[in-house]
Amino acid sequence: MNPSRKEKLYWSRLASIVGCIACKLDGNNNHYVSIHHCDGRTKKGAHMKVLPLCAAHHQTGGEDAPSIHPWKNQFIAKYGTQEYLMELCEGLVDANNN
Predict the structure, then answer these.
(1) Can you give the pTM of this predicted structure?
(2) CA 85 to chain CA centroid, nearest Å
(3) Contact 52, 20 (CB under 8 A)
(4) Residue 98: partners with Cβ closer than 8 Å, 6 or more residues away
């Protein structure tokens, strides 16, 4: 199922407000992100269970910047679970709305 307008708007807000959540936790601002789906792309609600990640933290990272693909365990050890990061991102977006 393709993302709805509402879901795409949320993605845009994640990119512009949060940027790469892993970079942010490292003390850097990087708003060049791709959207990582935390629970696949086809399940109901999947397009809202996402993280904004830069290329390095999404797929091309290494030891200094572990990427969720394929170093998921190292990524989680450094930055926290995907659930924790989604909550953190949601809080940052919500805080920006006030």
Answers:
(1) 0.93
(2) 7
(3) yes
(4) none
> Residue 73 class from Cβ within 10 Å (0-12 exposed, 13-18 middle, 19+ buried)?
exposed
How far apart are alpha carbons 23 and 14 in whole angstroms? Answer: 13
Share of the chain above pLDDT 90, in %: 82
Angle at CA 83, nearest 5°, toward 48 and 98?
Answer: 65
pLDDT tens by residue, 43-84: 888 999 999 999 999 999 887 789 999 899 999 999 999 999
The H or E element spanning position 36 is strand 34-37
